[in-house]
Specification:
The structure is a single chain. The protein is mostly helical and about 675 residues long. It has one domain. It has a two-stranded antiparallel ribbon. Helix 8 crosses helix 16, helix 12 runs antiparallel to helix 25 and helix 13 runs parallel beside helix 23. The longest helix is centred in the middle third of the chain and has 44 residues. The radius of gyration is 25 Å and the shape is globular. It starts with a helix and ends in a 7-residue tail after the last helix. About 50% of the residues are buried.
Length: about 675
């Protein structure tokens, strides 16, 4: 088994090597790039998230990088790879903040049918959404006194989250990479596009065409993205802006066949996503992971009719669409099964980490000393590292701030100290000072070994339920629970591009106010254009109500009466999922199956939106059996760059359409 696992992961490990020198990437160009993204890209990202649920991908990052490279050239200056990486990181950070839903989601949930039906609408805390009686909903504006607490909490959450993620993720990277020498096999994928840009500059400067292969491959992906994006997203956006009726050649977000196939496939959601990016994704991701996802999907297609015939999926009715089918199946069976499978994933990840540590210690006792380990002081010169005490101080201060603010908000909500608040305080201390560092370390090691994330499911939910708290306010607190281990991959990418870590921290300081101001302003502007969701935003109109209903399952669990949570939570199904997951991992290990196959099967069983799995599997087949055979290891170097170019091209053309939409809706008609 070890040989087969290593053979697939080794393809990713060998793509790039860490350079011997590191350069400062923070320049004035980063500040100008942040302003450019804040003014031009953030509104497009928010709009496209509502329209298609995809944002504009990494288009904002690549457009920013390309624009500043060309401007620098005309000023007879060339950006180094560190400066390009900082620009890329900066644009990505702003896009991440813009596509989370934020205040737009909060205003929708407060007015949603799901919140009203479960008795939550009147109990939502003031710091999360304005009261339903506020005239801000009729005016469709966040610039209202009733939204001030929610905006202040957004500022606090953004500041504390980004600071802790950057600093504590760095500390975990030091442990996993510098001390334990883990390879981080998936990190080179994210760094390949940066190298494409940098090598293009170097090739044109040195007149060496051979060195610029990444740029040519990136251009191919960009052309594909422009061509497909013109049909899939640009046409609906521009036609809706100019004529009032969106023309969709390919339905957004997917074509739904469930209402027709339900006659033969009981309780099975069928359909297909026409986004060509799914095929590209299937090529980029590990082949066995995509095969596993397809196998998991086939299992659900076979199992759901059987579960329906045995009365387990009892709520499904013929004629239900994808959204209704997924939600009803979730209530009847898959909510508990998801938890059980996630427990199995967590146990498998923790087992891998513990086994790795144990084997390393055993090898260290053997002659020769086993794998070479480093110390905290073993850092590459000039990388821009900080002291360990600063990391620990940051962790302690941020965790205490989370706990203090959460308890303060509950006391404000209830008018004083109560027994429920005391119980919540105990839970917060356990989550902040025990669970968070433990799960973050386990994830950092797993990311370093096989490029996977481990999450123990329902820890937050179980802790809050067991606290005995009554009400829904506790679900909207800024809890001190996070998994900082995922940030270690970013620092590995930073290292692979030869960028000083101090560049990232300087950029974060500049970004924070720009992210907040641009996100709040443009969310307010877009809400003012039209009701959200509405027919103008097909993805939000179709999927947000499902997301709200799923959220209410958990929120209703602390209301002290029979709730949707009690209907969905079934210990037997949970136990079945956990046992099935453990058996699956154990069986795969005995058979010597690649570990990516195992994770893929679990993903497919998790009843993720099935309409994307088929095109992703198709892309995996094309990549593995055609391109990989022709290009060998180069295929693993080429396809991440193609994917980056595709995202750039597709996002760029749709951003143009969004700009036209904003102009058309912002026109003021004169009364004469």
């Amino acid at each position: 088994m070890e040989h087969r696992i290593d053979r697939e992961l080794e393809e990713f490990r060998r793509i790039m090597e860490v350079p011997s020198t590191f350069e400062e990437g923070f320049r004035w160009s980063a500040l100008f790039g942040a302003i450019f993204v804040a003014l031009l890209m953030v509104p497009g990202a928010i709009y496209m998230g509502l329209l298609a649920g995809t944002g504009i991908g990494s288009a904002a990052q690549w457009v920013t990088v390309i624009l500043f490279i060309e401007v620098a050239r005309r000023a007879h200056r060339y950006l180094n790879r560190s400066e390009i990486f900082v620009l890329f990181f900066m644009a990505g950070s702003m896009m991440g903040a813009a596509t989370t839903g934020g205040l737009l989601w909060q205003q929708f949930f407060a007015q949603s049918d799901a919140a009203a039906a479960n008795g939550l609408a009147d109990q939502l805390p003031r710091w999360w959404a304005a009261p339903l009686g506020s005239d801000s909903y009729a005016q469709r504006t966040f610039f209202h006194i009733d939204w001030l607490p929610a905006i202040l909490m957004m500022i606090f959450g953004s500041f504390a989250g980004q600071l802790s993620n950057v600093v504590l993720g760095y500390g975990l990277f030091r442990v996993a990479s510098d001390m334990e020498k883990l390879p981080f096999p998936m990190a080179p994928i994210g760094a390949q596009g940066i190298m494409a840009m940098a090598e293009d500059i170097e090739a044109k400067d040195a007149k060496t065409a051979e060195e610029s292969w990444r740029w040519r491959v990136f251009a191919i992906g960009g052309a594909l993205g422009l061509a497909f994006g013109s049909i899939y997203l640009f046409l609906p956006v521009i036609s809706g802006a100019l004529t009032g009726t969106a023309i969709q050649i390919f339905p957004i977000p997917f074509s739904d066949f469930t209402g027709k196939t339900g006659l033969y496939l009981k309780a099975v959601a069928t359909g297909i996503s026409w986004d060509f990016g799914n095929i590209i994704t299937g090529m980029v991701m590990p082949f066995y992971g995509m095969v596993g996802s397809f196998i998991g999907l086939i299992i659900t297609v076979v199992a759901n009719p059987i579960l329906y015939n045995h009365g387990i999926l009892s709520n499904w009715k013929f004629g239900d669409d994808t959204v209704s089918t997924l939600f009803k199946n979730n209530i009847d069976f898959y909510f508990s099964l998801h938890i059980g499978i996630a427990v199995a994933i967590a146990l498998a990840g923790i087992y891998q980490v513990v086994r790795s540590v144990f084997r390393n210690r055993q090898a260290a006792r053997q002659p020769g000393g086993g794998p070479k380990r480093g110390t905290w002081k073993d850092v590459p010169p000039g990388r821009g590292d900080i002291k360990g005490w600063a990391i620990m101080l940051c962790y302690f201060v941020i965790t205490c701030a989370y706990i203090s603010v959460s308890i303060g908000l509950l006391m404000w909500h209830h008018g004083g100290w109560t027994k429920d608040i005391r119980n919540v305080l105990i839970v917060l201390l356990i989550l902040g000072f025990f669970y968070t560092p433990l799960i973050s370390y386990v994830t950092a090691r797993l990311e370093g070994m096989v490029g996977q994330v481990v999450e123990v499911p329902m820890i937050r939910e179980a802790a809050l339920i067991l606290s005995g708290y009554h009400g829904v306010a506790v679900w909207f607190l800024p809890l001190p629970i996070a998994n900082y281990g995922t940030m270690t991959v970013f620092y590995r990418q930073c290292e692979l591009t030869g960028t000083k870590f101090t560049s990232i921290w300087k950029t974060k300081i500049i970004l924070f106010p720009l992210i907040l101001l641009s996100t709040i302003f443009f969310m307010n502007f877009i809400w003012g254009l039209d009701r959200i969701p509405s027919v103008a935003y097909p993805y939000a109109q179709r999927m947000w109500e499902l997301n709200a209903a799923n959220s209410c399952i958990m929120y209703s669990s602390t209301m002290g009466e029979f709730s949707m949570f009690e209907q969905a939570f079934n210990v037997v199904y949970l136990g079945f999922g956990a046992v099935a997951g453990v058996v699956l991992f154990g069986g795969m290990q005995l058979l010597g199956a690649p570990i990516m196959l195992t994770y893929g099967v679990v993903r497919g069983l998790g009843q993720s939106l099935p309409h994307s799995i088929l095109p992703q599997f198709l892309g995996a087949l094309i990549g593995h059996f055609y391109f990989k055979k022709r290009l060998k290891l180069k295929w693993r170097q080429y396809i991440p760059v193609v994917a980056a170019g595709f995202s750039c091209g597709m996002g760029l053309i749709t951003t143009v359409g969004v700009g036209v939409t904003f102009l058309s809706k912002a026109v003021i008609k004169l009364p004469f």
